[in-house]
Design brief:
By secondary structure, the protein is of the alpha/beta class. It is built from seven helices and eleven strands. The protein is globular and about 55 Å long.
């Protein structure tokens, strides 16, 4: 069986990512057909033996790599693109992106794809300064983020994305990843331009690589990156992005057993949350069995835990 989409995530050596990848894997195995997408989990460094065995028992391939840029760990998501074979498309997600329906009909075509930026990070003046300093010779072009950021601003650069899921077309991963990595290194060397938005090196270097090749991102629907802010505004999520930075602001959505409440939501949204809850319950049971995860449940879907 030859599959033409590789669905991958990268796990850094911290227990937070160990618990997240358990749920990521269960959601992928349950909701994404095995005949259309091959799941792969990368570990940065030597991952826990018990977790690696568990993943392989679930039919998920595991690989190991060294960190690309110690100053910007988010850039480790570039690794799968650099190692991709020429005959597959590649989609790389964060470990806290949890599928509840198959996204494969969105993950195709010959353009790079990612969801739109959530909260105008970084704001327009940072993008103008970065583009000016980059020497690419392309102007700042405006678009909108999903929600407002600093000062109520929603305007952002047209190629600003959320890095929770990034798709590269068949045969285009490696060359693009080289440019992406080069721009990440450039941003690290010039981080003073980024001011307090230095954490966004990964998504900004992605945008600069697109500028270098003269392309614009083909935006994925926000339903593939459903953040908590959207729960009352959409009804057909394909994946929930439950980042630890958002959870404290939505504590009412989480039960003590880590499942989620669906009060006041549409019937379809409630059904998708129940799909996720089924996987959460299974994940909690699996975590209790694994030495690398059983003592770290407080880091999993817990609004009281601060990273």
């Amino acid at each position: 069986m030859e599959r033409h989409l590789s669905l991958e995530c990268v796990v850094d050596l911290h227990p937070r990512f160990f618990v997240e990848v358990v749920l990521w894997s269960l959601c992928v195995k349950r909701y994404i057909p095995a005949d259309v997408a091959k799941p792969v989990v990368w570990f940065v460094g030597d991952g826990p033996d018990d977790l690696i065995r568990w993943l392989r028992d679930k039919g998920i391939e595991t690989r190991t790599a060294s960190s690309l840029l110690h100053q910007a760990p988010h850039c480790n998501k570039i690794i799968p693109f650099m190692e991709a074979t020429e005959n597959v498309a590649v989609a790389v997600t964060d470990t806290d992106l949890y599928f509840v329906d198959s996204p494969v009909h969105f993950l195709g075509g010959d353009r790079f794809r990612a969801p739109p930026n959530n909260h105008c990070n970084p704001p327009p003046f940072i993008w103008r300064n970065v583009l000016s300093a980059s020497g690419i010779g392309r102007p700042y072009r405006p678009s909108l983020s999903l929600f407002s950021g600093i000062g109520g601003m929603r305007e952002t650069f047209i190629n600003n994305v959320c890095g929770s899921i990034i798709f590269a077309p068949t045969g285009r991963s490696k060359k693009f990843a080289e440019k992406w990595l080069n721009w990440a290194k450039w941003l690290i060397d010039n981080r003073e331009i980024l001011e307090r938005w230095r954490v966004h090196v990964d998504q900004m270097s992605f945008a600069l690589a697109l500028e270098e090749i003269g392309e614009d991102v083909d935006f994925l629907p926000p339903q593939l990156n459903t953040i908590l802010h959207l729960f009352e505004q959409i009804e057909t999520p394909y994946a929930f992005h439950l980042t630890t930075g958002h959870l404290p602001n939505f504590a009412n959505r989480f039960h003590e057993d880590r499942t989620m409440a669906s009060d006041g939501l549409s019937e379809m949204m409630s059904e998708r949350i129940e799909r996720l809850n089924d996987c959460i319950r299974e994940a909690v049971m699996e975590m209790a069995k694994l030495p690398s995860t059983r003592d770290h449940l407080e880091k999993f879907l817990n609004p009281s835990w601060r990273r």
